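dude i think i finally got it to work??
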Amino acid sequence: MAQPEALFLLIKSLDNGEKALLRSAEKGSAGYLALFDILSRQKDFDERKAKKKLISLGFDINFAYAKHYLTKQILRVIRENEVTGPNVGNQLVHEIDILMRRRVFDLAEKMVEKARAKTLGEERFHEFLQLSGLQMSLLLRNGTDMAETLDQINALNAERSTARAALNKLGEFEDLYYSYRPIVKHKQSARNEWDLASIQAFSAHPLLQGQETLGSARLQRMYLLCKSMIHAFSGSYAQAQDDLQALVDLYRSVAFLRDDYPEGYLNDLWRLGGMKLHFGDFAAVENLLKEIKDFSELKGIHASDIFEKYQRLLLGYALQTQNYGLVNAELPSIKAGLEIHRASIPWTSQAMLLLWLARLHFEQRQFKEAKAWLNEILDHPHRGQREDIHSLARIMLIFIYFETGEADLTESQTKATRKFLQRRDALYQFERCILRFLEKHSFSFKDAQLRDSLRGLRAELEVIFQDPLEANILAYFDILKWIDSVSK
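look at this
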């Protein structure tokens, strides 16, 4: 036999304190409060009498909706005032648990079945296991047809076994990925042997073999994240681009991934844009810029993340295409955004943005503006977190003083840069090459041999930049282009 009306049972389970809390919460909803009072006074649920009484009190409301609304409000009041108990961390699981403890089993069954199917479809395995555990308890109390109940329990156990396996593998992937995050955090050192060996060990991990066995979208996401990191930091950029394209396509095709990992989607759009810039696919970059801009309205994304990712990709695009007007038009909003979001943008990201702003002005021979951005990098207390960008900022300042004919400042900046590089424990090959040059030569128009020396420097650097990892530095500042401009 079916249970009485769920709302009626729920109301009858309330104590005086809970009723007072509900009345307080419903002060602005007189019709719903009237329905609550009517049902509270009924000894047996009678929908016809409840509707008639509401109309006589002047409340002509949709009765089905009113019952649904009032049920949700009662569950909310109970949930928010239960400070302890099982499943408090998940709102839906908590509410189903409340219904079961208050013996409102029919509604609990409807809610758990609907939610269970949704969580399984969206691969929210932890929630699925919680909900299916509640459903198992509901099945066990149903003893009318033991054979049917056993079939249902066995089917549910099979689903739970699959979910547990997927959840365990997802956890293993996440553990693997985050154990190698230091490679990303210290990517300016990724050219030394230890890091490259670490990346090779990462790539050989058994979890990263056999992509075809990954049926889960969440597992596929983690696999592609790992692979894209391996390929990017080992210099296999074409493969990294393919990984990132597959990852972005996965987000686009699976809505719950975008909903659950909005920051990841944004970051991977930006990473794909960087790879498209590397290969000169500027039409794709334009589309990705638009996609990032459109994404800015999605809830859960901090405005500083949108600002930083969009402006960094825009600056990279403008510098590679030499479309300076594109960014010049946005400079006021970039400066305003930096002021607003400075505290929220990590220094490792902010430093690149500042360097590219300096380069934007440098390439337009706006040296005063370029110096201001470079000095902001050099004056920052956390500059050591991006020693590669710190080095480039110092080198670019030498070039600026040389271009403006300030001989004394050129000489002092050369000495300061030389000392900085000499103190470093590990240098990139291009930095060693620059240091050797600075130890032998002075940037002075009076030096008749300077142009020949610069041509020799360029030849050395050109060989070094055949290493794709070393060539990364050209995306920050194209030193070869500058040498060509002054050594003619």
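DSSP finds 27 helices and no strands in the chain.
im so relieved honestly
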